[in-house]
Specification:
By secondary structure, the protein is α/β, with parallel strands linked by helices. The protein contains 12 helices and 15 strands. The radius of gyration is 35 Å and the shape is elongated.
Length: 351
């Protein structure tokens, strides 16, 4: 040990926030273990380190007894009194011993190893603390590599993982690409923080709108809900707290510039922006756009709805493979059935 190491500990405390006492205690513990392992089978050794000059001393701890049975563990009361008159039976006497010559080298190596270990632990904890609780936050990173379909993204201090299931279907990722993701999960593992990312989660679209549309960021326009099938289509319901601010126009932007930026970021995924209405019938009708809806009948107790559309709008309302009505149901939280005008008239005649 030396002043150089103490200076390093002080610097460590300033830069990493690791208390010097914590590292010194770890070094002491490591030195004790190292001495017992390399130089003595006994366990009654302790180390003290001078906080001013970094010098260490090695002590053998012995219990004061009347009759000594084990010289390695015990000391007689008579011998203890020769060292200090204050000692009584049962006290622990610390007797300084001169360590083996090789122990100095072991001490220096141990100190360096403990310091490096504490630095790694502090950095891991710092990174975890920085990202913990930030689920759904948007991050921009650089694609580093691919392994078994998973994409590793450089986030600056740490790599995030974009798993196969959280990627946009059909999207390709090349090394060096800058991509936006949302934090899906932050875990503290034995090796440090693990950041799971997503590009398929609806929150990515939400965060992108918050970035692109100042009125959303400022709270004038609010996003009520989002339904997304990544790589294909998203429906987003919005409303305005200010009657003078038109929500759809604000989200679309001048000549579609705002929504175009978002579409470009999510690999040309289609986005439907609709108006949220408190009246379920109106909200459901809006959610089924671009189809024109004649009438919506709701059953509040069952949370189900029947939407009537012109005959020529039936396939549009249902959507390819049922996507439009499926997204509308996710967006509104209602189970929606679509029937044509002819079907409605037929059922009314039967009634």
């Amino acid at each position: 040990m030396s002043k150089d190491i103490l200076n390093a500990l002080r610097e460590l405390e300033r830069e990493k926030g690791i208390p010097q006492e914590v590292v010194l205690e770890a070094i002491k513990s490591a030195l004790e273990t190292g001495y017992k392992k390399n130089f003595s089978k006994a366990t009654n050794f302790s180390v003290e380190i001078d906080n001013e000059n970094g010098e260490y001393k090695l002590f053998q701890d012995k219990t004061v007894v009347e009759d000594v049975e084990n010289k390695n563990l015990e000391i007689s009361l008579e011998e203890a009194k020769l060292l200090d008159l204050k000692y009584e039976l049962g006290d622990i006497v610390k007797i300084e011993i001169k360590p083996k010559k090789d122990f100095g080298r072991i001490a220096a190596q141990t100190a360096r190893q403990v310091i490096l270990q504490k630095i790694r632990e502090a950095e891991r904890e710092s990174i975890y603390s920085e990202f913990y609780g930030r689920e759904s936050d948007i991050l921009t990173g650089v694609v580093q590599r691919e392994s078994r379909g998973n994409i590793f993204v450089d986030l600056g201090k740490i790599e995030g993982i974009l798993s196969v299931n959280e990627q946009i279907p059909g999207e390709t990722y090349n090394q060096g690409d800058r991509i936006k993701t949302v934090i899906l999960e932050v875990k503290n593992t034995g090796k440090g923080a693990s950041i799971m990312l997503s590009r398929s989660h609806p929150n990515l679209v939400k965060r992108l709108f918050e970035l692109e549309v100042p009125e959303i960021h400022d709270g004038i326009i609010e996003i009520y809900s989002i339904a997304r099938e990544a790589g294909s289509r998203t429906k987003i319901a919005v409303f305005s707290h200010d009657p003078n601010v038109e929500p759809i126009g604000s989200c679309v932007g001048n000549k579609g510039s705002r929504v175009r930026n978002i579409i470009d970021e999510i690999n040309q995924e289609k986005i439907d922006i609709i108006i949220y209405e408190k009246e379920a019938e109106k909200f459901i009708a809006n959610s089924l756009g671009p189809a024109k809806i004649i009438k919506v009948t709701v059953d509040e107790s069952e949370k189900t709805a029947v939407a009537v559309v012109p005959d020529n709008q039936l396939s549009l309302a249902i959507g390819k493979e049922g996507q439009n009505v499926r997204l509308a149901a996710k967006l509104t939280g209602w189970k929606i059935d679509i029937i044509s005008e002819t079907e409605m008239e037929g059922s009314e005649e039967e009634a």
